[in-house]
Design brief:
The protein is an alpha/beta fold. The chain is built from six helices and five strands, in the order H-E-H-E-H-E-H-E-H-E-H. Helix 2 packs across helix 3 and helix 4 packs across helix 5. The protein is globular and about 50 Å long.
């Protein structure tokens, strides 16, 4: 069936797990840059720093504005950069994207930063860092808007709950997964994300 035809309310737990996690497994390959989707949660920063120190990629791009937090608040990208510096990532290897206010803008605005700093023609693979529940939307957004020659390794953060094998055991993470399912389908129907075949078994 098509993604736009999916009814999230009829899916079993196993079907939700398949849909949300099937395309977002870390294949442990190295890449040209680590792209961190905006947040002020330490989990994503810790994951990005670990990937960098493991030499999986030579640069980290942190993306996110202050739009969700208020005009007087520190942008997400600045907050993440400062935490990365504390974790031993040198400033010369941290790229900043300061405009994006949502997932689509994270991708679109990061395109320009990557073009100016590395050159899209030099990028073959990006390592994607976000929360486990957010990875499916990252995957769909990247494959909608990024050049089709770029590949991805999906490196979700290492929070205790919210992973493929236990997301339903924590009420907060369970709520996030269900909300994401509905959001993804809405974005497909609105044309923000491209439609496509989907399997849930």
């Amino acid at each position: 069936m098509k993604l736009s035809e999916l009814n999230p309310d009829t899916l079993s737990r196993e079907e939700m797990t398949t849909f949300m996690f099937q395309d977002t497994i870390d294949d442990h390959q190295s890449g040209d840059c680590i792209l961190v989707f905006g947040s002020k949660t330490i989990h994503r920063v810790l994951k990005a720093a670990a990937l960098y120190h493991d030499k999986r990629a030579p640069k980290i791009l942190v993306s996110g504005s202050a739009a969700r937090w208020g005009e007087d608040e520190e942008p997400e990208a600045i907050w993440m950069r400062d935490r990365l510096l504390e974790l031993g990532v040198p400033s010369k290897d941290i790229l900043l994207e300061l405009e994006a206010a949502n997932t689509t803008e994270n991708v679109l605005a990061s395109l320009m930063v990557l073009q100016r700093s590395i050159g899209l023609n030099h990028i073959q693979r990006l390592l994607i860092v976000s929360s486990p529940y957010h990875m499916k939307r990252c995957y769909l957004t990247l494959t909608t808007y990024m050049p089709d020659w770029i590949s991805y390794s999906f490196c979700s953060d290492d929070r205790e709950f919210g992973q493929r094998n236990n997301w339903w055991k924590d009420e907060t993470e369970k709520t996030r997964i269900v909300k994401e399912l509905h959001s993804i389908q809405r974005y497909v129907k609105e044309g923000i994300l491209k439609d496509g075949d989907v399997r849930v078994t």
